[in-house]
Amino acid sequence: MADSSTSDMTLTVHHHGKPHTFTLPPDATLQDLSSTIAQTLNIPIENQKLLIAPKPGMQKHPFAPTPLSALLPLTSPKFKLTLLGTPAQEIESLNAQTAETRQRLEARAAAAAKHRSRRPAPSTAGGVHTLSSGGSNTYTFHRLLPLSYLPNPSRSLEFLARLRDDPGIRAAMAKHRFSVPLLTEMDPAEHTTSESRTLGLNRNKGEVIELRLRTDAYDGYRDYRTIRKTLCHELAHYREGG
């Protein structure tokens, strides 16, 4: 929503489902709006994406110095400004949690290795490794993270949990000793261009795996078997070391 008079321009920007009102001079540009958002919401400019509906659509960093009065469809009854982006403190918190999880897993692995070194050798060779053994708690996804600012995050969490608990996925992770600190969903807007759509990402050699769960319209979900296939592909990257 906006006031399109010749006086100061008042814009409502929706972020994480909440409206934020900004007042800008009538000659303000897209760059000015981005800078104001960065100062007010503490979202770095390079992390911002602005979805302008109905047109011109998604705007990404670096933002053009285009006057807002010429860019925004202020008179359209469907006009809406949606901000996609993560505040700096949330990014720092996620990085800290990932590092903490990694340290905890390393300490657990070291303790397990020390314990194994003290055990007497088994009297018979071979053995059966089942998903109910202790390894199933180590070789898994240790944290699931839906994107809370997108619709129905609880459904995304159900998708992530279903993938984590999938018998085939669990068996493969136990077999190859895959331990992934974070499994999260991917924001379609951040990984969609006119030429391609990224389906999954493996970051920092398996510390984080991102999956495109949703359709491009946000309100629907892709086929589970297709998502599962993408996850298997990303786990194969984990095995290859990147």
From TrEMBL:
GO molecular function terms listed in the Swiss-Prot or TrEMBL record: proteasome binding
Pfam families with a match to the protein in the record: WLM
Renumbered residue ranges of the record's region Disordered: 112-132
Designated name of the protein: WLM domain-containing protein
Protein source organism: Aspergillus felis
WLM domain residues: 132-242
PROSITE patterns the record matches: WLM (PS51397)
Signal sequence, renumbered to the chain: none
